[in-house]
Amino acid sequence: MTTTRTHRRALSIAAALAAGSVALTGCGNTNADAAATDPGSPATVTSVDGQQISLPATGEPTAVFFFSVGCGGCVGGVRSLGEAATAADKAGTEASFLAVDMDPGESQETIEEFMEYVDAEHVPAAIDTGAALSQRFGVAALSTLIVVDADGNVTFRGTDPSTRTITAELEKAGA
Length: 175
Known about the structure:
Layout: H1 2-26, H2 30-37, E1 43-46, E2 52-55, E3 62-67, H3 74-91, E4 96-101, H4 108-117, E5 125-127, H5 132-136, E6 144-148, E7 154-159, H6 163-172
Parallel strand pairs: 3-4, 4-5
Antiparallel strand pairs: 1-2, 3-6, 6-7
Helix pairs in contact: 3-6
């Protein structure tokens, strides 16, 4: 009986590992992988409201927060991003902000409602179609903030950022 149980357990673990490796392999994108090796090359994304956004932004650092509407922990990060954007606007700071939804199944309407709910509707939001931005910047987890300088280099990476952290890191990046 112990041998059968052990054998079943081994088969279950092997099946889980195989499924995981298939899922990870299936997520690969050759073009995005190439872009990840050259972070200074510009990337253009389209926001949910149709605006073209370049990363890196021309001549200024950008705070990019990766989220999903279904991620409860992401609420605070997107709210902090919105507060930092408001503070930068009031202070005349040269910086850009972008919220990137990592779930391609979430609709434009759902994302817009979420951004309004967290008082960040003034921050552009885009859907990470094909995981292009996630792969380019090596982001594997929700609630991740990166700050990209004007040359396209990631100067900061963290989770669940505060408004103060976002502002300070943008200043370090040249804002």
